[in-house]
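Researcher: Checking consistency across runs. Here is WD40-like Beta Propeller Repeat again:
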Amino acid sequence: MRNFRLATLAGSVVLAGLLVQVHALPVMAADTDTSSVMATGQLQGINFDPKKGTLDGSPADHLPGNIRRLDIDLPNGAAQRADWSPDGNRLVFLDAPIGDLWQHDLATGATRNLTESSALHKGVLRAHHLTNGDVVLCALTERSAEDPEGDRFRGQLWVLQQPLGTLAPVGLGESCWEGIAVSKNPASTRIAWNQSTIDFTKPDVPIQALFGKSKILTGRIVYRNGRPEIAGRTVALDKRDVSLDTPAVEAQDFRALPDADTDPDDELIFSAYFHKGGQAMRVNLDTGAVTDLAPKSILYEEAEGIDPSGRYLMVERDLAITLFPGMVDIWRLPLDGSGKFERMTTFNYYKNFGANNPVISPDGMQMAFGLKVEGAEGEGDGIFLMDLSS
């Protein structure tokens, strides 16, 4: 009991410190500059978003010329969390935060359910293509009637092999939480996934966040007698590698560097939650060096899809200093060390809407993303395509 009280006190101190840090910051006038918040010595300025939540209606009814909504009609649920096929001709997506995996052909408009006849029916949390066309999943075979929200934290890694939807998924024997990073290099089948003991739906989450474990692992999908398995499993990052008060880390994407290394997957892009508000970061997989991609920012910035050539990263960003992020929009962050953001969407100008889960096509010419709505974490209501060619 004494240890529990100490843990409760410690968790309360951490949260109180975060709240003090947030609410003690001076509020400056809104700025139209999209660069990072300046925080050298003392806070010099905060970029608020004065138009956030000021418009009625839906952004889906007021799209700019470079954005279109995909015509995907599902019997239940809504298309969300898209991922591009290696040839850029199809998307896979979910129909719910925990649901079935579907495939959409961009040329014909045909849509089909890939998991309705499998053990993973209505249990898929994430899905990402390998460059060979197979799909890596974080999913579960059984849903909990007593704790359905907690199912987000009970996933396992699986591989769905080609032809998609015809073969039973193969389990890899690894637990997973949230996103999966998959190498975009044709010669690589490297993946990264997250393991955590923290359940963010529980009332004791401050204690779990303080004392729980969160790490990112990497490995390669290999095929023995045609059956996928993980080889070379290793821990790439622990949350303590970021800071002692970082509750959780999440893998997002690999990036190649122009070096003489024969391994094309030199860096791993990841998100560090509650680290300076929530930051997009990278770890060098050769040296272990951890770098903040926008070190002067104290806003919520979650790493999402990377440009295939490694020039920039899309992030979900909230221009408000709060303990938890609200409706986010999508911004582009060049990976040149400048920390200067470019706004890509203004969906959160509309009340109770935002934009989320951006992924870049293999040719770098399009971005698929979701219409963020109120509901479960990451939930969406439709998939949109943005033309990036201009």
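Researcher: Does this match what you'd expect to see?
Model: One thing to look at in this run: Residues 1-45 have pLDDT under 50 and may be disordered.
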